[in-house]
Amino acid sequence: MAFQLTVPNMACSACANTITKALQAVDANASVQADPTTKLVSVETQASETAIKEALAAAGYPVA
């Protein structure tokens, strides 16, 4: 499953790294592209969208 999420408080590459690590903790094989400039996170994963959103919120990056 692939989807794009908007993460308004992603400000820098360190934020993008934190987001990537949080999502790969849910699905180690997830493909994550986090772009601080556009605030978009593109995810290709076997995990549910709900699980991904919960992981982002837990990491301090709630989805808009």
Automatic annotation (TrEMBL):
Signal sequence interval, chain numbering: none
Matches recorded under Pfam families: HMA
InterPro entries assigned to the protein according to its UniProt record, in alphabetical order: HMA_dom (IPR006121), HMA_dom_sf (IPR036163)
PROSITE patterns in alphabetical order: HMA_2 (PS50846)
Record domain HMA: where: 1-64
Chain segments annotated as transmembrane: none
Protein name in the entry: Heavy-metal-associated domain-containing protein
Natural source organism: Nostoc paludosum FACHB-159
Lineage summary: Bacteria, Bacillati, Cyanobacteriota, Cyanophyceae, Nostocales
